[in-house]
Write a structure and sequence with these properties.
By secondary structure, the chain is of the alpha/beta class. It contains 18 helices and 13 strands. The protein has helices at 16-25, 32-42, 57-68, 88-101, 118-126, 136-144, 161-166, 170-179, 195-204, 234-248, 262-274, 288-299, 333-340, 361-371, 380-405, 416-441, 449-452, 455-459; strands at 47-50, 81-84, 109-112, 131-134, 155-158, 185-190, 209-212, 223-229, 255-258, 279-282, 305-308, 323-326, 350-356. Helix 12 (288-299) links the parallel strand 10 and strand 11. It is globular, with a radius of gyration of 38 Å. The N and C termini lie far apart (115 Å).
Length: 487
């Protein structure tokens, strides 16, 4: 494991243009992953970077790539560098980093993600892309359509590789690696390094420098973590969450609320909206325009709360999030670290609450074992939620009494207007019944048979036995032998 530190970005070998952009953003000192990876990338080494979310990992490859791209020029449909990301959000955020730090560079950046038309993306490729940022599926779609040539790629970046593994993208990554010349420089970043990724790195990276700055099982020390008990019903958990949000008061600048399932994201979003909270929702099935709109509104503080699924838990580049709420305990203990890593970033303080039910005991035990410490209980919200439940029950009881007094409860006297309507209907029924009985008692006026028979009866008239012997169908020209009576 390499351990490299640097007091300032100027010591890392970055170009003057890049250093100027970094200074304008307000950053002075590199994070450990940046201090380790940037010099190695500038030396054209392959890099295997292992760092938890929120450590400045994206800038650790964006800044040196900008420096290396200052010389040279892209050709039509032949990108110079390729960055693969697992989700649309992460890909879009990487593109934003290139635009932020590369505003003094005149680089063409192409973003290939789902939810955007192929035509616009193809026009970008036709102009030549210095930086191509893509999700695996959309990139291979363009390649299959003959709109993308990968023979000129100088640098390949695989970001959030462990999430790629979770989402089943490794076969796509292997195919992309085989399509790009082996003379490339390869950079692979991941929060964890399971055996499958070790094998992938061994196959496609050449003598990589391994930069491991923190164990993925550790949460930042700037994050205050708490567990909050709740009953197991969804409405009980929602009541506890509302109590938590209200209890934090002015300390809560903004917050991300994580659910395990996208269905729960929608339900919780609607519930918080009904209770008057300023909230947005983010999950994997949203189209790209809506996703980016929600994220932008959250970044600009137009939304205070963001309800999200685990698809959005990784790679969200929102540097100043004050709180994280785990509405559901994550299924995998590692995801707990990734979730709460959305707060307490870059040395800032943050707070993470996890709502737990009696069914979550084993999951909580696994989390505490992973992070190596017990998470304290937060009882204030439990008390507030209990008081709120009693208040809600009392209000409901009072409302029921008022409805009963107004005649809506069981056993109450019926609404007089309803009773009057019933009487009128009953009177109508009696008149109709008398009319029918009188009609039945009156003899029917004698009518000709032809008028009394129904059409069906006309078609199938009843005949006497003698009439049944008649042979029909010949009119007046019936043969004589057919007139002989039959028994």
């Amino acid at each position: 494991m390499d351990s490299v530190s640097a007091p300032d970005f100027a010591d890392l070998g970055l170009s003057a243009k890049v250093l100027s952009s970094v200074k304008e953003t307000g950053y002075n000192s590199p994070t450990p992953i940046q201090a380790g990876a940037i010099p190695a990338i500038l030396q054209h080494c392959d890099v295997l970077g292992i760092a938890q979310t929120g450590t400045g990992k994206t800038a650790s490859f964006v800044l040196p790539m900008l420096t290396l791209l200052e010389s040279g020029r892209a050709r039509i449909r032949m990108p110079r560098t390729v960055i693969i990301a697992p989700t649309r959000e992460l890909a879009a955020q990487i593109a934003e980093n290139f635009e932020k730090y590369g505003k003094k560079h005149r680089l063409n950046i192409a973003l290939l993600i789902g939810g955007v038309s192929f035509d616009e993306q193809e026009r970008r490729l036709e102009r030549g892309a210095d930086v191509l940022i893509a999700t695996p599926g959309r990139m291979l779609d363009h390649y299959g359509r003959g709109k993308l040539l990968l023979t000129g790629v100088e640098i390949l970046v695989i970001d959030e590789a462990d999430r790629m593994l979770d989402m089943g993208f490794i076969p796509d990554i292997e195919r992309i690696c085989k399509l790009i010349p082996m003379t490339r420089q390869t950079l692979l970043f991941s929060a964890t390094m399971p055996a499958e990724l070790e094998a992938l790195a061994g196959q496609f990276l050449h003598n990589p420098q391994r930069i491991e700055v923190a164990a993925a099982s550790s949460a930042a020390r700037t994050i205050s973590q708490y567990l909050v008990k709740s009953d197991k019903k969804p409405w009980d958990k929602r009541r506890v969450l509302r109590a938590l949000i209200k209890e934090q008061g002015e300390y809560l600048k903004n917050a991300i609320i994580f659910c395990n399932r996208k269905r729960d994201v929608g339900e919780l979003f609607r519930s918080l909206t009904r209770h008057g909270f300023n909230v947005g929702a983010l999950h994997g099935d949203m189209d790209q325009h809506n996703r980016m709109t929600v994220l932008e509104n959250f970044r600009r503080d137009k939304l205070q709360l963001l309800v999200a699924s685990d698809v959005a838990a990784r790679g969200l580049d929102i540097p100043d999030v004050s709180h994280v709420f785990n509405f559901d305990v994550p299924i995998h203990a590692e995801d707990y670290v990734h979730r709460i890593g959305r707060t307490g970033r870059a040395g800032r303080s943050g707070t993470a609450f996890t709502i737990i039910t009696p069914n979550d005991a084993k999951a909580v035990e696994a989390i505490e074992k992973l992070i190596g410490e017990a998470i304290p209980r937060f009882h204030q919200a439990e008390t507030i939620a209990a008081n709120q439940a009693e208040s809600d029950a009392a209000a409901a009881k009072s409302s029921n009494k008022q409805r009963k007094a107004a005649g809506a409860g069981p056993g109450a006297q019926a609404d007089p207007t309803v009773k009057s309507e019933k009487n009128r209907n009953s009177g109508k029924n009696r008149v109709n019944k008398a009319h029918i009985m009188a009609k039945a008692e009156r003899p029917e006026r004698q009518q000709p048979v032809a008028e009394k028979l129904s059409p069906a009866a006309k078609r199938q008239p009843k005949h006497s036995k003698a009439e049944s012997n008649k042979i029909l169908g010949f009119g007046q020209d019936m043969p004589a032998f057919m007139r002989i009576p039959t028994q």
